[in-house]
């Protein structure tokens, strides 16, 4: 969610008028009545997105205030406000660290255009910086979000893993950023000067075919690595015969190294919890023990509530640049509450698809509840009105229609999807309860939702291309 805007002015009328305009545009506002209060708020409230500061303050004003604000470390856009258009004062303010200048009386249109331009410029700068770091393989731990309690321990484990040369196992659901974390660990590790080689694990039950692939594809990859990282993605998909081949290789490798520094770091990524597969006899315990010398489990998005707003804002900034929709700056508080109620089985990937559609639908600077019809639909009350819906309409959300609008019987897959999605919504994302009521396993429920997520992704891609 976009942070608040600070309005600092000693004159109550000017401050109240400017704040009122901003609130009408959908922004959150905090106010400061003098220069000292302004500095205090900027020191304590590090989430402030913009600052609008009147140059006329009796305690600390003019360009001295602007300079002092910048000295405190406040890096967000700062716009100065004044009663007169003074070119000399404007130049001094810009030199001191302001980015724009507003003259009273400030209109809603002028303020909206100014903040819109500043927001998109800031977004482009951050996106270019992020993409450049990504392309230059310079993503670091500082680029990740780990404010939630659920993420703090995995984050610390990841930092410790970066200092080690031991094999690393990263477990987590799809869409949780497992490979991104693997790359960050690589570039923060002693192996940063070498390559990061990604190998997608494909199950091969035939030992002969597996042997051919090992000799023609896997070994050449391994032999090309000099002081780098090999990342095996979806290690849980390997058949037992493939696992045995890796066990033999890793044991011989360890014996050859004899306690010396390994030629490369082995990192593996798994969607399933391997401990459970070991208990079910689907994964070799010896292989599991070799892989988890360092072990990081990434929590799903639904457990990272304190990181959610930052992750959503980062995704919106990326979407704004990609789609060319500079009018969207963030998510309104009510819409963020709605997003937090969703279970997000597809994690960050699913969130990004939902936000992409919302950005295309949105008309204002902040995404609101009405920009997320796929999360509301007929399953919830109309958020735009406090008037209760009629009983027939309220009961209709429990009815699954067998016949479509053309008078044809709907397909079984369509009916099954509607039943599952309505059940998950009815139980507000409590997956265990939804699975129990449907009479299916929790893993089956997640698999079905993953399939629906993939379908939604295709629809989003088609929508993206059409736009």
From TrEMBL:
Main localization, broad class: cytoplasm
Subcellular location field: Cytoplasm
Domain Sigma-54 factor interaction: 144-360
Pfam families: AAA_lid_14, HTH_8, Response_reg, Sigma54_activ_2
InterPro entries: AAA_lid_NorR (IPR058031), CheY-like_superfamily (IPR011006), Homeodomain-like_sf (IPR009057), HTH_Fis (IPR002197), P-loop_NTPase (IPR027417), Sig_transdc_resp-reg_receiver (IPR001789), Sigma_54_int (IPR002078)
GO MF term list: ATP binding; sequence-specific DNA binding
The entry's keywords: Activator, ATP-binding, Cytoplasm, DNA-binding, Nucleotide-binding, Phosphoprotein, Repressor, Transcription, Transcription regulation, Two-component regulatory system
Name of protein: DNA-binding transcriptional regulator NtrC
